[in-house]
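Subject: for your reference before the review

Hello V.,

The reviewers asked for a structural picture of the protein, and I figured it would be easier to keep everything in one thread rather than splitting it across files. Below is the amino acid sequence we used in the manuscript, unchanged from the supplementary table.
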Amino acid sequence: MHKPASGTIANIASTDILRHCPVASVESMFYDHPMSQTSTRILGIEGGGTKTDWVYAEEGHILQQGKFGTGNMRLIDDKTLLDYFQQMPAVVDAVGVYLAGCITAADRARLQGLVSQIWPRARISLGSDRESGYETVLGNGDGIITIAGTGSSVMGKRAGRTEYASGWGHLLGDAGSGYDMGINALRRVLYDFDMRKEVPPVAHEFLRALQLNTLRDLVSWVANADKKNVAALARVVLKAATAGDAEMMDIVDRCTSQVADYTAAVARRLELENPRIGLVGGMFRSTLYRAEFEKHMLRYGCHATYVTNSDNGAVGAARLAARAISAIEPVVHTPADVDLTDVREALTEQTNPRSVRLHEMNAGEIVDLFIDEERFVETALREHASAIAAGVQLIARSLKEGGRLFYAGAGTSGRLGILDASEIPPTFGAPPSLVQGIMAGGVAAIHGASEAAEDDAGAGEQTAVQRGIRSGDVVCGIAASGRTPFVLGLLEKSRELGAHTIFLTCNPSRPKTSPRWDVEIDLATGPEIITGSTRLKAGTATKVALNILSSGAMILLGKVQGNFMIDVHAGNAKLRDRAIRIVCALRQCSAAEAREMLESHQWNVRQCLV
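And here is what came back from the structure prediction:
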């Protein structure tokens, strides 16, 4: 076991720590499953903007607990997180890590990698502090938790459905949090000083609390303060508001109103009329803050039952870790486990018999083999020429009627889609919104691997909605194996939204969906020279197919005359020279005459041809 930091561990019986848990007993909390007969070691970790708590349980009893600094993934680096983890118990069967800022698939992948370094043999469950906070206060029941501490967020559940609000971080969200209250009070103080050259009483308290002398010192302090330090000023605001400071009371009213707005929004979406609401976070320890929040909830007609719990969120994280190893009700807060049978059987995952001795070949033999393998690309494309042509027609018709084309993929497939989309504006003079690329994992996955993102079908569904895919658009899902969950989830949701769908794969043997996509293109490029490396033949065939789909649609839309791109954007010397040559050829004029026409038409080739 790693030696914890001095003063961070207490040997406390589970009944002391868990006496307020909303479950029948400590034993049932952790061990109502087949592993209850063995000594199962559970570690629960929850991190927020102010602190990181952890608890260690064995045989239903919490034996140790500890505390470190901020655990918000957006505010600390990997080294700091690893330092925390290395001071916790080393031998565990299951570990649950729930940190503020763990929002996206990329966040979960990052956290999974760090946790696996310390506990490689443990069953790992992970997610955000909202999930562990919910488990701590409400357990498995329906209801809502409203978190108002350094940051703020809301999470609700009903009948297996989950809804979220706020929690976007202090730059874009966290309305009503300690940070929000502190920063707005500071702005108000400076505003009053600028307007009336008065230093209000609350400013005196800020300066006293921070051991500063002037408002200019306060400005310098804020420039270097972290989120936690700004949030600590909320205590001063609440004290001043309680004492009758009208301006600070306005800030408290606004903050609690916003938190109530988010809570009520989640209640409406889940159709919870008078829900149980768990109040989590230091702000609710203020009698004034809680009273104002409940007042605003009544404004919405919500007569809720409010629940609090003295346990820290690490207890909820431990419960979730215990449930993750339960045979009855597994809960793993990573993307859902994926059935890999289809992947293993995919043509792109088979071993290529022509390259089994690849490691023994010299450079010339390697080059010859790669060139020879390219013949499978052409064969695959020719065999599916009619399907590609159907895709061209579908795209051209949709674009002509005001639709857009979206490419969606993960890894190499996603990057190829983004590449093709990015070439449309300069080549054909189309607006960037006409053809768009969507990458599993977002922009970070373009330059760096984000493999976990591709397994999240739910993220694909959310992306379809939030990217504004609508009826009349065309969505081309790209997946070499034909089973990428992110892509399939995005295609399914796009179809629900009324968009046309194209599915481009390199695996003809993939399981076919019903109903089928509007156009299906399955290019049989065969096993790769390097097994499973679909950036090779599969990537080449995909790139060619995308070239044909987009270029063919642009040709049918009239953006080519002869074999010239007449809407080319002449943005540099090379393209201006090309524009001159196009006008020369199509107008049968000299280069000087072509240049003169182009200059008079702001280098718009099409206008020169009218």
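For the response letter, the relevant points are probably these. Residues 1-38, 327-344 have pLDDT under 50 and may be disordered. Residues 246-270 form the longest helix (25 residues).

Happy to draft the paragraph if you're swamped.

O.
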